[in-house]
Amino acid sequence: MNDEKRPQPPARTHWRLWFWAFFAATAAYMLWYKWGAITWFALSDTDDNMRFVQVKSWLAGQGWYDLRNHRMDPPDGISIHWSRIVDLPIAGLLLILQPILGGPQAARWACAIAPMLAFGASLYGMMLAARRLIDRWAFFLAFAVMVCAQTSMLMWMPLRIDHHGWQLATLIWAVTGIADPKKVRGGITTGIATAISLSIGLELLPYLATIGALSLLWWVLDASERDRIRAYGAALAGGAAVGYAVFGSFDNAAPLCDALTPVYLSTLLEAGGLMVLLGSLRIEGRTSRAVLMAAAAIVLGGAFATTWPQCLGRPEHISPELDKLWFSHIKEAKPLYEHGWRVWFPTIALSGVGLVGAFVTWRREQGTAKEMPWLVVTLLSLFSTALLLWQTRAGPASQAMGVIGATALGQPLMVWTLGYTSDRKGALGQIEASLIHILGTVAAFLLVSGSFAAMIVRSVPEHRTAYRKSVDQANRRCPTLPALKPIAALPPATIFTFVDLGPRLIAVTHHDAIAGPYHRAGNAILDVQHAFRADNPEVAHDVMKRHGASLLLLCPGLSESTVYQSENPKGFYVQLKNGKVPGWLAPMPLPANSPFKLWKLVG
């Protein structure tokens, strides 16, 4: 009987049905959990609002390759370093739902459903990776641990339409390809996942470069891996070329360092070509393969350094002043240890457990076919955990990698607790076995999933000062649709407001804004920073005139405003907050309960 006709084991036949059940149940919970936010279209993150504006502008006729946001600092707009890839599911859902639900409801549900599609892709890849790396039944525990990865799960929640959820999916699939015992298929999977991820954005470039380097090292150690790296290289180069040709914007045709531009396209083409070349050679000597790998690395690194020397530093290329006044205040760009323990403890818990689990499993698998895939997972876990000491934004990827190691650590432990039987006879022995079954299993899961950290955080009361409560209230109220409704009722205008409020303003009203929190808009950001910090109100007057702004909008207490107040208690923002208004501004009427203050330029 051939393989096609042989009955398959239940786990292999039905695990995909389990995937659909898990996905449907989790999606239903996500919708229930976010129901209020969906109802009020609470795109709370600046990038989510900007993504929605980008999709709306495209559907309204903006060119496919024109990714400038023309409603930010009009008329030229600001350059956005994203691609259209993540726009596609949102736009598709909008087009499907709009004739059925109407515009506002279609927008709500398109933005609610789109991130869960990325979760589905991530969950399928994670369950498949667990089957390949750990055990055919390990997908049960992998799912359970994954939904406890709070930092990662936030990237897939309804309304989280930014690109990070899709990038996590590509990272998981890159590892799933490494774990594939079928070398050609695995290489193609990893290469395509890498190309898609880098076409979306460069945030995961360090992880993906590590996967590429370790794939070559695997070939050095095992000559039979040449088929994998040849397929990987071809898929990487071809995928990057398609990604750039189809999804690269006009602005990204310049040799910039923060997106898939000619800089990284040429590098990926070279890297893919070198992999295809090395994979096409039949070299039996390990030393010879090591020399060739080193030579390829030198050629690739040397070509990058000599051709694109401007990209050897930080990719954003922001000025020291912009870094000091703006970038250094972004919470996710700060190291994890600069946050309170309520943030760093739950984040590091799963990452740390996963790192331990990956290392232990790698040591156990040494000498087997799974040794190199586990080395990849171990080093990615170590690398992503270390990155938390650089920027907190590494948390979602760190936890996603932690899920794999945590599942490997927890699988035998959970099997033991669930299958434990006491040798003692009588009632006491049965009670002991029952306690091990129930309490032991629960305790083991809380440990390996990192959930113990979240439980500890929730159990410790948090003291919040009156000042902190006022800031939280401003952060909650000002971006809401009811608060912005009186602003939206005014005739269209360019509004001078906080940098972080700009994307929300243009997403849910017909007004334009001067600046948003995007590094390519550095000059506009600095104009806002200078205006609100300056002692002299004429700085703001000049900024409004140069940018064509006719309204000035404040949300006193918003997080961004606390920076202005703390760094210059006598600055323009504090003056306005305290009622010291220059003569060239006239107050505009707002409802008595409005969290905003609004003025019109009259001079």
From TrEMBL:
The chain crosses the membrane at residues 15-33, 107-130, 137-157, 204-222, 229-247, 259-278, 290-308, 343-362, 374-391, 397-421, 433-457. It comes from Sphingomonas vulcanisoli. Keywords: Membrane, Transmembrane, Transmembrane helix. This is AcrB/AcrD/AcrF family protein.
